[in-house]
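quick one before i forget lol
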Amino acid sequence: MATPKKSRGAGAQSRPGRALSLIVIIMVALVGGMFISGTFTPRLGIDLAGGTSITLEAKNEPGKPNAINKTNMDTAADIINRRVNGMGVSEAEVQTQGNNNIIVNIPKGTNQKQARDQVGTTAQLYFRPVLTVAAGAPTANPSTSPSPSASSSSKATDKATDKATDKASSSATPSASATSQGRAVTDSLKDDASPSASASASADAKASPTPSASASASADPATAALEKKFTALDCTDSKARTAVNEGAKETDTIVACGKDSSGAWEKYILGPSEVNGKDVKKAAAGINQQSGQWVVNMDFTGSGSKKFAATTSKLKDQQSPMNQFAIVLDGDVVSAPSVSSTLSQSAEISGSFNQESAKDLANVLSYGALPLTFHEQSVTSVTATLGGEQLHAGLIAGAIGLALVVIYLVVYYRGLSLIALASLLTSGILTYTLMTLLGPAIGFALNLPAVCGAIVAIGITADSFIVYFERIRDEVREGRSVRPAVERAWPRARRTILVSDFVSFLAAAVLYIVTVGKVQGFAFTLGLTTLLDVVVVFLFTKPLMTLLARTKFFTSGHKWSGLDPKRLGVQPPLRRTRRASAPVDPKEA
């Protein structure tokens, strides 16, 4: 006697509890994540929660009369958008307005100060050799100030001497030596310079410039003007710091300000730049393993590595402070490390960084410098009044649509509607918890288009249930009982559901890629809920249907079960009756 072939759904039919247990564990884990993170509501976009609107105005720069054009404005808007998104603010809106304005809308809940620093920073990065360094206050006697090639005053000379002494005592390290600022540069491919090189270079720092050198430098009007600017500069005055380098070019010798490790201002005369921000391949914040301080690590491009190696090769044999190079960001000296060996592939910016400031600097360096200089024209608060009204109307529309779906399911599918409603509730819990957790995780913010995407997903999810229920009904119409019908209908329904959801997800993915701004919120929500529909149907709807198909209510074909054979038009099987044989006439016999 041949054994009956095991049906394809027998395994799933016998173990529906495993799938139900898995989805319960997933929901408990997501809800637990909400309690751990302390976040219980989704993060809202600027149209629903309000926020800050920043207007940036492009400024004309000397020597660049045609710099403000559509190409540069679009490039600047793209860089600002990537910077803000790099902070995790995925719902920030960046758009150009007119010929010279960029509007940046940042939703509430974001670090507003941090965001303003990011969008307003031009991020022009230069590596310049240090010619002179002195205290940041104006020099008392300008007539005695030396040339840029020498020390600016007796105080600067003493400072250089102190630095040289400190470096000579710590010259056992062949890597970049720390200055009085407590900053250093390291390299992943350091040359094996001898320890004595650093000491000998530092020991000669006491040598003072010859009078003839100072005199010849002072004879140059440009040098004299630079000396005067350096002497008069007060680094404690923010306006003076901003104006001192206005209009300066990359090839110019400039005066700049920076802070040392104690927070005191210092002023510098810096030579022309040989390496700039375009030579930086990538930047990332990290912790220096030796000092335990936050730093910014930079990797250079191929051409940048060659330029940086050539620059540090020339600086390593100079006297202090001329063996230092300054890392200048938007005209301010971020760090001014000294060099004792040739560096090439990478560099490290260290200083008074915390985690936030290190990541901010790495962020702006990674996305490049703005092609234009911008002035913060206005900062205004945006209310959510209009968005709140639209959200209220949208929620009413969603509630009406959901009510109509429920009424249709109850009237047409009766008992099966309980499975559909339970599945919709499960999908809603998963969607809400994921949206809540994605806020702090990736910066997802719920805006009006995203709410529309969630409402559309109700129809997609309900459609999957209807496909499965109709397949079951088709099997019942063919004369099968409920339990076999549930299992035989699943493979056919599964293929249809997967194809339908794949098309929806593909449309959402394409829409997300080719659009920007709020439309991406709609596409993201649609794609997320489409994936959740697959999870719910496979791990909840099908197992629950398998369990309920074992109950008497469904197996008996109750008229309220939704699987009543009579209501489905199933004809009872025809019974064949044997004809009674006619009596034989004796006469015929």
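fyi The longest helix spans residues 482-514.
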